[in-house]
Design a protein that fits this description.
With about 1450 residues, the protein is of the alpha+beta class. The longest helix is centred in the middle third of the chain and has 30 residues, at about 575-605.
Length: about 1450
Amino acid sequence: MSLDSMLPVAPARVRALVLPIGKVKRERFSSFVHRLNEEHVVHLRDITADGRPNRNMFSPLAFPDGAMFYDLITYVPPPSHLALAPFELFREPLALIAITDGQELENVAFSKRESANGYAPTMAERNIRTLYQELEELRDTYPKILTHQVLIFDYAPHTDTTIPIPEGIKTIPPVENSKRTTIKTIMCDISSLLLAEMTTLAKSFEGMTSIDSPGQAPTRPGLNGAAPWTSDDANPAARRNSQYAVPTVTRSASTSGAGDRSQARMSMPVPFKSLPFGSNNSSPSARPTTPVRSGLANPPTTFDDISSVNGSNPDVSSSETHSRPGSAGGTRSANQDKVSVQGFGPGGLNERWRNKGRGRATILVGSLYLQAGRWTDALKELIEGAVVAKSINDHLWHGKALELITICLLLLSWVGVEFQVPTVCLPTNDKTISSISRGPDAEEVDSDQPKHLRSLQSILPELLERIIGLYSRLSGEQLPPLPLSESIIRFCSLLTALHLSEGKLDKKSLDTIILSDSPTKTLTTSPRLTITPTRAQIATMLFKAFPSSAPELLTTVDRAVILSGIAAILGSLGFHRKKAMVVRELVSVSIGGLVEARTRGAAEVGIHPAAGLVALNTTNGHGNGAGALELGEGDIEHGIDAFLGLLCKIYGVVGFDDAVLDPSGKLPQASDTDSSVISRIQSQSSARQFGITNVKLNILRACINFSEALPDFNGVLKFSSDLLRTAGSGVAPGPRREDAAPIITRDEQVRLTTNISKTASLSERLGLGHLTAEYWDEFLVRGITLDPLPSTKTPVPHSKTVLPGVTTARTSQDVNPFIYNPFIRASDKAVVERTLVAGEAATFRITLQNPYEIDVDIESIKLVAEGAEFESSITSTVIGPYRTQILKLVGTPRAAGSLKITGAIVKVRGCRERRFPIFPQPWAPDTETKIKGIGLAALEQNKKLPFPGPRLKPDSIGLSVISAQPVVVIKSTSLYQSSVMILEGEQQVFSVTLQNLSTSTPADLLLFSFQDSTQAPLQTALTSRDATPAELYEYELILARKQALKLRKINGPKRYIAPGGTATFDFEILGKPGLTNGTIQVDYAYLGVPQDEISDQFHTRQVCLDLTITVNASVELARMDVLPIEGKIPKPIWTRLGAQEAETEPSLSDEEYCLLLLDLRNAWPSDMQVCLKADDDIMLKEHILPGNTNRVVFPVPRVYIDDPHASIPALNPSRQRQFVVSSSKITPEIERGNREAFWYREKILEKLSGSWKTLSGPARQGSIELRGIRLAPRMIEVIKIDEIGIDISVEGPPQAESRSTSPPSSPKGKEKKLGGRSTTANANTVFVDEFAQVKVRITNRTREPVHPMLRLLPSLRHRAAGAALDLVRKLAWNGTLQMALPRLGAGAEAEVCVGVTPLCRGEFEIAASVEETVLWDPADGDAVADQVGLAAPRRERSETEVMMDAVLGAKERRIWHSRRPCLVWVRDREDDD
């Protein structure tokens, strides 16, 4: 049951004042009160009746079904409430229960004064005696209370000694030792005493002839005066006669000042400063001489004010007070107990006056019966009093009687007692019982509802309206605003419970009315017109209780209580906006009262009111701003915060979060995870679109003023930040898109942030560091990026599979550039930028936004990461107004592993340090174009539904942290300023020294890569689709075998640089055209394990040495040509070439050698010596002056190539396919010519080399670049040796040879080399008409057999073509000049002899040609190939043959001619003779 004073059955409750006594802690005291509240309903059947005959007026035996409802209060009611008695008896406490802790009995003495009852052997007994003395003091302090009782909770006495428990003190064992009925028995005992003492009070009311209404000036002096509720008389005889007898022992003299506020016990609550809580005035107080209403308007605040209001009356003697002690109720003085005798004789008051007093007394007795649980007797008395009051037009008391009758009927219905609605409750036009019995319409009658409940249900709304009309009627007596408003609120609460039960008065609705069970049904804005009473009727009645704005009619506390009651009922009815309006008024009322209370409190402690914000809290020991109102530690958090939070929720204020207080009640457990922040943003976005923004801002301003008036630091911080949050846009603006400016002025923003900063600083100085605000923008962090590491420290990832092959290649001098080199290629930028090294700092850029027009002072900011251990630097900054700002932070990973940067932990001045996720993308919620619901239910429903706006996704930075790595730098180099000048073809060697800067990590992996300016053009040329295969081969050759930079071969230990050590490496540089710069790239790492034990991946760092290279020309090849050898070469030439005459001269012929003509130019300003070398140790040296061009003639061997039409090879493995079809449109003849030129050129270059060296100036030497040689078809014919060799010779008769002589045209000794044989001219001399033989030797140099056909072609020498072939009567042949020869095997020779007879003298030339008659089929050549010892060729595929035909054309029959004709001299023998 709620302890609300405005419940429907509040007049039926009995107030009991519960106070602490002795030594008891606040938490223990609260738990004891809670145990008593569990048994606040005491049924009369459980109460033992008092056996005294003069104390049985309220005996529980008369109505066992009744019950007493206790309202346990821990405060003394204010005078404005006590002044309403006896009109409202339930406001005056009738019982006093003092509670102490039994566990403290043996710990410390409750009082230091000596006991008046003698020596106490134990500490517990001494304390119990002290408790009895304090009980007597409480009886003296509160003499108007009917019964006083001391309860010792958790009392566990020792079994060896028994301590006597004085009368008026009861013990309660601990919970574990208590029975189910222990507390219930205690409450029944207290109720038994109370019922007995209520007899005296009732008799006193019956004996009164005049009872004034509340707020009414007394009709005659000395009657019904407003005496103080607490007694100032120290005489114990001033108590009621029915109380316990005064003990005979005398108290100590120190007890006279026990009631003084300055000497109040610390375990008891401090009495209100406006109450006479133990005044020491010795004279009894008389009734006030001024109207009571003035006391309500200006309640007394000091003891002097109380004395002036309740001034002593010297005419009243103490004997009169003793004659009827305690007969006055409420704030009546002792004079009110006198019974006037003027009305009993002639000249007395008229009958109306006596009837008024008698009727009011009857109503008071009925009220006592109602509180005592005797509801049937109460109904009887109240009906009688109502009839009397109605007859004499006593409107206030008539309404009071009807109100109490209504409560009696409800209580009787609750216990199931049938009744008949009294006639006095019926309307004037419907008083017959038959009309009541008809009840509602037949179709609406519930057969399960009893008839008496239907009757009560039908008249209840009209009856309550009539009661309110009686209270509000203008007459000589007018009800004060407080009881009128509270009565209306009680009626509306009753009707609300009936409405929530669907307008039916049944068990459910009665439980809600009597026991104040909270309704489980929540009403929405949908109309409920079919239920009586309707919500509109209840709301109309309720707003009649709205207090007037006149400040003199109600105190601030009463006005706040009334507004709270109105707001509570409006909330139950579902009128949340009306409720918010009332709560808004409540806040305004409270602010003024709080300011006044703070001012008074500051004046009492002697400080300036402006300093009360701090001083009052520290003086009263409160840490959260509750000192001005004397609130408990938890009252702010559990009461005011919830109250203001509800107000803000109704208006749709954009709050931070619905966080729940932690168990200590200090710091809200706000979650800052990504999901929580996203949910919070979406919830705030929904709230931002709900309601009216200006109204929200006004509500928050009122909440701030309310919190400042308390003062409540936490409220000031919370609502100030909520105001900034509500005024903000709540979006993440993009570039030139959303307008994120707040809707309040800049001055107000500055004022709010300053208020937050000052309040937080003040809280920290007071030791309340946990009180902080929540930052008002969830999109503070808009981005975090990692600055790229320096190029020398960037770790580059590599797969394990690339390491062994690359390592093998790096250890050689010649590195194939076409092999995949993962170290020279550009690394994946995204992967490299997200790799960090353990122990090395990295720089992060964090983007912060401030959409407000104020500076945001960030006290500290650091990165927050997940995964590997990470340490972030902490810095501070100030973000300017309405901007985004980039801040640099340094973070250091401490261990290897995966790392994820998820946000930043930011501490804004005055705000809580919290984590902010990263929101890099612009975001703004969608604006609702169609409103689908209204009211708070729509807002809550929208929060439960999926968010309709764009998706909000926080960002994170995934990083990979590797183990510690060395840092290698280039310490020095042998080159001056890393630059070098070199000549073409020259090689130089330089050294580079590397140093490891790391003091703990060595470098055990060193890999070198090279780049130069010639590689890019060559790579570009390699990708050209127009390049011929010969050009591609040339480009690849230059890349592979003409590298500008390379590492000299190292014959030593493994490459290794110790921590802090150095290592030196030698490199070679080659001068080549187009070389202007080069780079030596060193990839290094610390593996720590052998290379074959690496798991999956490793990382390397790079350090580069950039070289500036200048290449100058040396010896250039200006022109070249190839010439055949004609005749014999003189000996001086061979001697100059360094050949030995005996060995060289016999073999030198045009069949084996040709002459190479070279024009060499010296482009260097120094004398040059050129040296050319060929096979057979042929060497030529030539001296060339600067700028001169010398022509050099050099014999070179002729070349035979088995397949000159073979495809041009590719040095790049990726291009090494079997056949490459040229992309250019050329004929097969041109393709065959290009291939022949390529192969013969390559053969010549294999046999030829050249070098140079300077003869003056600095010594330099190098090689001549001869790859500029290009062969024309004419040159190829000179160089090449045919596949079929043809040797022709003529032999005469043997006898003729001995007599032959040399012809005159052929000098003796002239030699001819024919077919590799040296013959003289005499051998070719024949005679006329003599037989001779022409021998033709055919040599097959190929690897395939041929089918030859020999043709001989004799002709006259030195004749024209036509005449030369006319051989009629000149030569005679034996056979034909054309003959088919058998197949000639590979490498075989064949000799053919043809008889010839010259018929005339002269000089003849015999030429020959061999033609292939049939193409050789490889399928038929296996046997022959085996015979000659050659492997059979592989069978070609049909596709291959087609491709060959497409490139080189279809294979055709070939023909070969003799290089020179055979010269034959024909002579007459007679001439020879």
